[in-house]
């Protein structure tokens, strides 16, 4: 641990304790350092072994003890200190609950695992100078040890009878095959392709380091295929109520009433279905929503070409910034920069966003997985880029970074609650609809399809993991108990997304239980907070001022979020 955490620790207020925690966490997990833009982190990777995970848990326990002392100090009850302390306590408690249940010994997923973390961090590691590439070579040489530590954790999980799901395992094996450049598409291995842009002077060193990293990918893939997959064969993909509740707390920052949330998902399903039918009739009279979407897949507006869609998505974000700044937001210059990127092959099908570095030298970026496509339907992208980019993830997370000195480093980065962030992004989609930016039935049906996907996530994620019954008023298998097969069928019937996307989504829900429900439940929290604030202020309510205050308070769990938003 850093000397800074221990020196004069008795006089530290909650925000200082939180920021000292970030410093010590970066020392344990340099991937976090890279996300934050810490140059010294570029040459190393975390220890994913049981010993490495224990070190993170020990740090969390020590920090909670220091927080206890900090919250008794004069000044700890002011809003800034109270809000930070509340977040730090909630987050570390939720993380320790996951750790103490040994969940990290069975972390296998198509989107969230130590292996995915290692791969993604290279796309964010600085690669401009020879010194940058020297650090990259060092980080590449650390890949075999990082993967060995991850495998050690999974091995211990098998010994303790803690298994990941077979579906996620099979998907992960396929992803590793793609990363190794050994699938049928003929793409180059990820690490070899990554170093192709390196300066010639370091070519030999980097090619050798990349080859070693790729060999580690192959070794992990072979072990997952030949040892792990047979061990988990026949095991359930779902996790049950107890594990689901633990993960739901982790992702949502509160102990949800899961049965109430399930009922809310169905209420939203019925509301959105009625709206979708109305929009579909404008596109293809007499057709249902998904028939209309299939018509748009063939005959709707499209962007041709990968480079062309990348530029078009950049234009969506640039236009939103230009139009919203000064009217509904007040944006700092450095917050206005965001880049549209194409995601590397071999990941999940869903688009995603990566934060700017703390000094904004690396801007926020949106990432589109093309999944081999070169023709892209507009209806499927407009609302999604309001979600991923502006005014969604980018405005919130870049604003947190911008005001980190007024919050704490922890609140602006490491302390992120998934449902807070995803709820804001879904609220941002709805805001753009409220403001009239979805300019025709094609774009609005696409928006409603995105909303329906998030409602369906609540239904199937809770339903299949808890084994709940399908309500009697459902148009789909009323009265039956959810299974993974029914969940996939339901999703396919009530989504305009292609089959490979739906397959990827279901695998994601199975391997990240409780995360996918945070979009719709988070949006509900943001809307409730806005409604409460509007009611309190009456005609004097200023939406722009509320947006900026809301985006400048850092992360909070859902209960705390509603409370704080309502006071703004």
From TrEMBL:
Name of a matching Pfam family: DUF885
Listed name of the protein: DUF885 domain-containing protein
Species of the source: Streptomyces cirratus
């Amino acid at each position: 641990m850093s000397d800074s955490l221990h020196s004069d620790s008795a006089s530290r207020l909650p925000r200082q304790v939180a920021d000292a925690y970030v410093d010590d966490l970066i020392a344990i997990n340099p991937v976090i350092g890279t996300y934050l833009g810490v140059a010294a982190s570029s040459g190393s990777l975390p220890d994913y072994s049981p010993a490495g995970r224990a070190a993170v848990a020990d740090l969390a326990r020590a920090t909670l003890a220091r927080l206890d002392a900090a919250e008794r100090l004069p000044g700890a009850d002011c809003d800034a200190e109270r809000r930070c302390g509340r977040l730090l306590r909630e987050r570390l408690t939720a993380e320790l609950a996951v750790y103490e249940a040994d969940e990290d010994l069975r972390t296998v997923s198509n989107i969230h695992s130590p292996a995915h973390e290692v791969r993604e961090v290279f796309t964010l590691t600085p690669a401009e100078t020879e010194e940058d590439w020297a650090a990259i070579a060092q980080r590449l040489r650390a890949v075999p040890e990082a993967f060995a530590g991850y495998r050690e954790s999974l091995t211990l999980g098998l010994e303790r009878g803690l298994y990941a799901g077979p579906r996620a395992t099979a998907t992960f094996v396929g992803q590793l095959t793609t990363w190794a450049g050994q699938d049928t598409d003929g793409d180059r291995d990820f690490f070899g392709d990554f170093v192709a842009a390196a300066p010639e002077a370091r070519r030999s060193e980097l090619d050798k380091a990349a080859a070693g990293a790729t060999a580690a990918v192959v070794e992990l893939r072979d072990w997952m295929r030949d040892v792990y997959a047979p061990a988990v064969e026949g095991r359930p993909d779902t996790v049950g109520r107890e594990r689901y509740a633990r993960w739901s707390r982790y992702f949502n920052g509160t102990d949800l009433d899961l049965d109430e949330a399930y009922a809310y998902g169905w209420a939203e399903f019925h509301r959105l279905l009625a709206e979708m039918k109305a929009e579909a009739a404008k596109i293809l009279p007499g057709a249902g929503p998904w028939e209309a979407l299939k018509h748009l897949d063939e005959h709707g507006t499209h962007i041709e070409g990968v480079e062309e869609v990348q530029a078009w998505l950049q234009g969506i974000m640039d236009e939103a910034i230009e139009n919203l700044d000064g009217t509904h937001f007040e944006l700092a210059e450095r917050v206005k920069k965001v880049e549209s990127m194409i995601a590397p092959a071999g990941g999940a099908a869903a688009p995603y966003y990566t934060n700017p570095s703390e000094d904004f030298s690396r801007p926020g970026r949106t990432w589109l997985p093309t999944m081999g496509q070169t023709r892209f339907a507009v209806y499927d992208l407009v609302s999604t880029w309001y979600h991923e980019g502006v005014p969604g993830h980018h405005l919130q997370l870049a604003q947190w970074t911008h005001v980190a000195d007024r919050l704490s480093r922890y609140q602006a980065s490491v302390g992120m609650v998934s449902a807070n962030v995803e709820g804001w992004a879904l609220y941002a989609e709805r805001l753009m609809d409220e403001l009239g930016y979805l300019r025709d039935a094609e774009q609005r049906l696409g928006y409603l399809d995105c909303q329906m996907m998030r409602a369906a996530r609540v239904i199937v994620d809770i339903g299949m993991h808890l084994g709940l019954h399908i309500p009697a008023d459902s148009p789909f298998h009323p009265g039956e108990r959810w299974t993974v097969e029914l969940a996939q069928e339901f999703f396919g019937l009530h989504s305009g997304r292609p089959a490979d996307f739906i397959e990827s989504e279901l695998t994601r829900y199975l391997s990240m239980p409780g995360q996918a429900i945070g979009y719709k439940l988070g949006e509900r929290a943001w809307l409730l907070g806005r409604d409460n604030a509007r009611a309190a202020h009456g005609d004097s309510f200023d939406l722009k001022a509320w947006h900026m205050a809301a985006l400048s308070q850092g992360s909070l769990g859902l209960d705390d979020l509603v409370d704080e938003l309502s006071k703004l």
